[in-house]
Amino acid sequence: MGKVMFRLAMAGFITVIVFVLGFLLGYQLFQGKLSEIQDTQNSIQADTLSIDIESQLASESACDAKSLEALARKMEILGPKIDMLEKQSRHLELNGLKSYYFLLEIKHWLAIKSMNLRCKTDYLPVLYFYSNTNCKDCGEQGTVLLHQKTLNPKLMIYSFDIDSDLSAIKILKSKYAIESVPAIIVREQKFEGLRNADDLRMIMQ
Questions:
Q1: I need a labelling partner for 154 at 20 to 30 A (CA). Which of 76, 120, 128, 167 fits?
Q2: What global pTM score does this model have?
Q3: Lowest mean pLDDT among 56-65, 97-106, 179-188, 196-205
Q4: What is the mean pLDDT of the chain?
């Protein structure tokens, strides 16, 4: 009887030790992942602020198309980073960062429209509205749009999450009467629903 009790006690003790070690290991991994996410977020914040400042400087230079193109390339890199971070973390600070990025996109879009008028450039700005929570075709639509971008360097794509609480996004949704996603705006004309590559070529020609 005593041996049985001893074995049960040892088994219970070992179980507790394994549980504690597993908890500590999981906690350390969580802390490491959290630290990695925070570092990525800090880096993105710095990049976003830099783009904002560069955008203001570029807007002061008359018809400085190359500066705006360079900014567009930086934003194309920054956008996927924010998407990746959003999938890893739902922190409130990230929502603010995403909103700030949308504002940068709007600022760049307005600058491109202004340059087309003032400098007779031929950039083609496209607004793309999507949702990460309720849109089965948005991922595919984004991929098709990015492919079109590789074929036409004059194409400027600005992506906006329709679920954003940002007032500027709500104004755009109201202005273009966005009722479903995916939706794109080309030359002030709205196209809702998934559009394949052939459709987009017809729309953008």
A1: 167
A2: 0.71
A3: 56-65
A4: 76
